[in-house]
Protein: 2-oxoisovalerate dehydrogenase subunit alpha
Organism: Homo sapiens
Amino acid sequence: MAVAIAAARVWRLNRGLSQAALLLLRQPGARGLARSHPPRQQQQFSSLDDKPQFPGASAEFIDKLEFIQPNVISGIPIYRVMDRQGQIINPSEDPHLPKEKVLKLYKSMTLLNTMDRILYESQRQGRISFYMTNYGEEGTHVGSAAALDNTDLVFGQYREAGVLMYRDYPLELFMAQCYGNISDLGKGRQMPVHYGCKERHFVTISSPLATQIPQAVGAAYAAKRANANRVVICYFGEGAASEGDAHAGFNFAATLECPIIFFCRNNGYAISTPTSEQYRGDGIAARGPGYGIMSIRVDGNDVFAVYNATGGPKARASVGPSSPSTTGTCGIMMPLHAMGLWHPVSHQQELSTAPKPKGTTKPILESYLKSHLLGHSRYQLYIHQDAVRREKPQSNLNRESLI
């Protein structure tokens, strides 16, 4: 899974215009963009009258007819901290998280993965009407959630249950919401997986695509006006990025200099439409500069890369009496074939042969979790190597992560 995370910040140019930056991600090699234009020599103007006066842009005159081709500009690179074997590539990029947080990341991913299986099977059995799994996207949830403050406001779409889970949302309430029973805080009025929690600053999910994007921008602008020390993060998929609300939200966020992080998780399909039928060029990440938003792509299977990329924008987007407002935008691309990297064949076989729970109460679920410990590819390798360094069996770490 490749993830792109975009953090946008606002800077002032010497001509007095304000711009913001957007961060997004994309799959390596997909619609690869070959080469870049050689840099032009900056023109010198004898007077301001000779300089181009193109509203809202920084431009220079040329005397040769030349169109900018979409396939000659180098693609936005993909940021990562670990390789696929769980090894830190550049030690200076290691976030050096404490053991407690490392284990919490692993526990949240494992718990989410197992809850997904139980609820997905419940839907297939007709016990609940609807369910959307988070397979392959666990790292993007917990990596970004760990970099935020618990008071930062979250606008999710369908696949951000891991953010709530990292904020210690109870399993009983996940189940109650999907079953729409008497314990459901929404009184059974929402579709399954449409979670929300005021105490954990997670805005209730709505079904229409992309409606949360302009709403999140409005909430971020309100936080800026109130001079609150708070950041808004808005999650959405590449399909939602094709909606008009997304473009309006990006533009408002940039021009109003809102303290917001746009986090686009791209799994390669918008419900059922592949990316090849949605857009051209260098994917969604390349839209950021067009709105004046600085962009970056991040490997979504790399929890530490997601953590770093979200934490950087969050620090720059903080709003306070003495800090300038900034805009952060994040995007994640997750091609479906990369999910095999997240769920090894051995893990898939383990799931297919594991006994299935016959209920969804907490004791049964926890028993199931402790009996069938799940692995998460790259992060599992990192956990194993860390356990070896500390001479502690990984099986003990697995059990610690679920107790």
In short: Residues 1-37, 319-375 have pLDDT under 50 and may be disordered. The chain is about 35% helix and 10% strand.
